[in-house]
Design brief:
The chain is of the alpha+beta class. Helices cover 44% and strands 26% of the residues. The chain has a 3-stranded antiparallel beta sheet. It has a two-stranded antiparallel ribbon with strand order 1-5. A hairpin with a 4-residue loop joins strand 3 (16-21) and strand 4 (26-30).
């Protein structure tokens, strides 16, 4: 399962989402798709469920979506914004 992690504060700036963690000293700016991922992770999700939702919502080949989302999740893990059990 993928869970949000930490004390991230968020604010919308146009279609983007700006995130800041005072405890971690990290700042992120997420695109529209990244913001959607963050929104979906309000409730813990399995990787398969997250992929399925995004494939249904966006016009992108499934393998390309999976690869892009997995890369994005790796970034969020490295910034301590999410954890994957």
């Amino acid at each position: 399962m993928i869970h949000r992690d930490g004390d991230w504060l968020t604010a919308r700036v146009g279609d983007d989402l700006v995130m800041m963690s005072a405890a971690e000293g990290n700042y992120l700016r997420l695109s529209e798709v990244g913001a959607r991922v963050w929104e979906l992770l309000e409730r813990p999700q399995s990787r398969d469920d997250l992929h399925a939702t995004l494939i249904a919502e966006y016009d992108v080949p499934p393998e390309e979506c999976r690869r892009a989302i997995d890369d994005f999740l790796a970034t969020l893990v490295s910034r301590r914004a999410v954890r994957i059990d």
